[in-house]
């Protein structure tokens, strides 16, 4: 066997080893999800007797779903989560991009101060703000238990990061000559922004939308502090409360967990490429 | 039009950044300052009056041994989890950038845990640890698996670490993937011609050129691990015997369960300072280690 042949064979073996490791790791990564999926179609007794069996001895059942749906009030919490996520994301994008624009294009002191404060505030974790937030908005203003309050807070917390990202995008991707041309054609600042600058920010808008929407959808701590009434629960709160009440009814728990995951997994199936790209470009900035 | 007058500037600023300024101030700046003030009061969360107590909350914090235990536990957990997350993420990133077939599929798959909130993840793993592992242990008669890991002190910590690694590795992998991609093919080829083996190339060429990826991943994992709450709540709930209560959960309980808002806020502030110092120090050291090709 000559050296070339040996090198080729080594390469093949190398490749095969990598694939085997990857597949093994992949199975480890999705094993918990597979477990939920195989147990959700079993009766409670079957799950307890053998959670690893593919099909329980009592056979295949769909009963867990309707019961879990009804008990966690799935559609209502889904609706709450959807409204809150969509409104917060849109508002964040609008306000953050506008703010970034005025900050980039003007060297005013107020802009510098705002931007500096925003950058500095990004290191503050939510746990430092949760107690004063509850005490201010619950104790003094008494406006907890409204979806609008939660949206307001979501927007407030995500503005810094979003403004920072739009700041970078406007700096690098929006040529100032384009804006000057618009001014000469008679656009004022407001028109220039909406007709020239905002459309050019599309890639960053997508990135911010993906990162923030995922964060809003999955957030538990802030919503749980703001929304204490059952009819306002978002999916994470509903899951937490459901588990607290029905933790022994393991079939229902499986169904509830799967239901809580499904919306975002279905979305991921279609938008997978955009989500992976968005998260990467958001993190690397 | 004169664009250099105060009224023009003011109008422009309010038009574009007015709402942002108000919302940002109302949600971040004011609560932060108000939180500082709260640490000097003893408020129970109900009464209208907030008696001024000077430094009593800080004294209470220093005397609160449960808090320092929780903080120590959080540090241990964070150190182990941060190292493992980054090692696993780096290996994953290497494997999915090495030209294997279907690498995009693997990338997408490893990222899945990040899509789902900590509460749901915690309950899924609780089922895995409590039922699936135990069933596996019984059927294979492996002693170490036959009782739930979540029921022992060290086991609960181990479970938290496993779930964190599983949860964050896919996300950090994406950042390392971007790092691997940014290393130019010319440099790698030059190393190969000079006789570097695969491992030598990674260690001597890729890693030094990817320092900024490491800095970023470390910063993200450190801050996330330090502030862990959701998974802690759903997976262990602090049990057994409060032995897995992390610092963030302790702060939450101090304020919202025991109604010591002032002390809770003081403890949150100290947690924040520790976390910020570690995070910023790490970035500072990391930036110095950066090299360019």
Provide a concise account of the structure shown:
The complex is a heterodimer of chains A (285) and B (293). With 285 residues, chain A is mostly helical. Chain A has helices at residues 3-40, 44-49, 64-71, 74-105, 109-121, 126-140, 147-173, 176-184, 189-200, 202-218, 221-226, 235-246, 250-284.
Describe the protein in words.
The complex is a heterodimer of chains A (285) and B (293). Chain A has 285 residues and is mostly helical. Chain A has 13 helices and no strands. Chain A folds into two domains: 3-49; 72-246, MetI-like (MetI-like fold, Orthogonal Bundle), CATH 1.10.3720.10. Helices cover 81% and strands 0% of the residues of chain A. The mean pLDDT of chain A is 86. Chain B is an all-alpha fold and 293 residues long. Chain B is 76% helix and 0% strand. Chain B has helices at 6-38, 56-63, 65-96, 103-111, 118-140, 143-146, 153-182, 185-193, 198-209, 211-226, 230-236, 247-257, 261-288. The longest helix of chain B is centred in the N-terminal third of the chain and has 33 residues, at 6-38. The mean pLDDT of chain B is 85. The interface between A and B is large, with 90 and 86 residues.
Order of helices and strands of chain A: HHHHHHHHHHHHH
CATH topology of the largest domain in chain A: MetI-like fold
User: What is the H/E order of chain B?
Assistant: HHHHHHHHHHHHH
Number of helices of chain B: 13
Q: What is the CATH domain class of the largest domain in chain A?
A: Mainly Alpha
How is the biggest beta sheet of chain B arranged?
none
Overall CATH architecture of chain B: Orthogonal Bundle
| Average residue-wise pLDDT of chain B | 85
Spans where pLDDT lies below 50 across 5 or more residues of chain B:
none
Helix amount of chain B, in percent? Answer: over 70%
Uncertain stretches of 5 or more adjacent residues of chain A: none
What is the terminal separation of chain B in angstroms? 49 Å
């Amino acid at each position: 066997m000559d050296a070339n042949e040996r090198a080729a064979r080594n390469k093949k073996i190398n490749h095969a080893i990598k694939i085997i490791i990857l597949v093994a790791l992949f199975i480890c990564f999705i094993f918990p999800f597979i477990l939920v999926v195989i147990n959700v179609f079993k009766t409670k007794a079957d799950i307890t007797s053998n959670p690893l069996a593919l099909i329980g001895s009592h056979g295949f059942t769909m009963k867990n779903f309707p019961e879990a749906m009804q008990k966690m009030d799935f559609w209502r919490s889904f609706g709450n989560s959807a409204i809150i996520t969509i409104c917060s994301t849109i508002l964040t994008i609008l306000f953050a991009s506008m703010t970034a624009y005025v900050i980039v294009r003007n060297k005013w002191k107020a802009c510098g101060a705002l931007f500096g404060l925003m950058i500095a505030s990004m290191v503050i974790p939510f746990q430092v703000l949760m107690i004063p937030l509850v005490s201010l908005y619950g104790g003094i203003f008494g406006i907890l238990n409204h979806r609008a309050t939660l949206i307001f807070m979501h927007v407030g917390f995500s503005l810094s990061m979003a403004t920072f990202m739009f700041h970078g995008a406007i700096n690098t991707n929006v040529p100032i000559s384009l804006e000057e041309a618009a001014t000469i054609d008679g656009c004022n600042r407001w028109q220039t922004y909406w007709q020239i600058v905002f459309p050019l920010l599309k890639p960053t808008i997508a990135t911010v939308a993906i990162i923030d929407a995922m964060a809003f959808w999955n957030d538990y701590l802030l919503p749980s502090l703001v929304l204490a009434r059952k009819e306002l629960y978002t999916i994470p709160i509903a899951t937490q409360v459901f588990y607290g009440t029905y933790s022994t009814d393991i079939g229902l728990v499986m169904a509830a967990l799967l239901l809580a995951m499904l919306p975002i997994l279905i979305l991921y199936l279609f938008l997978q490429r955009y989500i992976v790209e968005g998260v990467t470009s958001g993190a690397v900035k | 039009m004169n664009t250099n007058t105060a009224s023009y500037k003011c109008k422009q600023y309010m038009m574009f950044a007015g709402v942002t300024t108000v919302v940002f101030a109302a949600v971040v700046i004011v609560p932060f300052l108000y939180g500082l003030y709260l640490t000097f009061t003893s408020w129970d969360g109900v009464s209208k009056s907030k008696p001024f107590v000077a430094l009593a909350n800080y004294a209470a914090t220093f005397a609160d041994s449960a808090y320092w235990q929780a903080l120590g536990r959080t540090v241990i957990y964070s150190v182990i989890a941060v190292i493992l997350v980054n090692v696993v993420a780096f290996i994953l990133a290497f494997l999915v950038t090495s030209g294997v077939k279907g690498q995009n599929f693997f990338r997408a798959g490893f990222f899945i845990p990040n899509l789902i909130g900590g509460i749901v993840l915690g309950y899924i793993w609780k089922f895995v640890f409590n039922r699936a592992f135990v069933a596996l242990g019984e059927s294979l008669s492996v002693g170490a698996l036959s009782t739930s890991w979540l029921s022992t002190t060290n086991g609960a910590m181990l479970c938290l670490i496993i779930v964190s690694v599983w949860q964050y590795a896919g996300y950090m992998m994406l950042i390392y993937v971007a790092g691997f991609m940014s290393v130019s093919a010319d440099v790698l080829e030059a190393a190969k011609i000079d006789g570097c083996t695969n491992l030598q190339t990674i260690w001597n060429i890729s890693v030094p050129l990817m320092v900024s990826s490491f800095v970023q991943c470390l910063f993200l994992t450190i801050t996330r691990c330090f502030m862990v709450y959701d998974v802690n709540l759903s997976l262990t709930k602090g049990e057994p015997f409060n032995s897995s209560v992390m610092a963030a959960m302790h702060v939450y309980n101090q304020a919202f369960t025991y109604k010591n808002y002032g002390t809770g806020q003081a403890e949150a502030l100290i947690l924040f300072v520790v976390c910020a110092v570690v995070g910023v120090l790490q970035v500072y050291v990391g930036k110095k280690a950066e090299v360019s090709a």
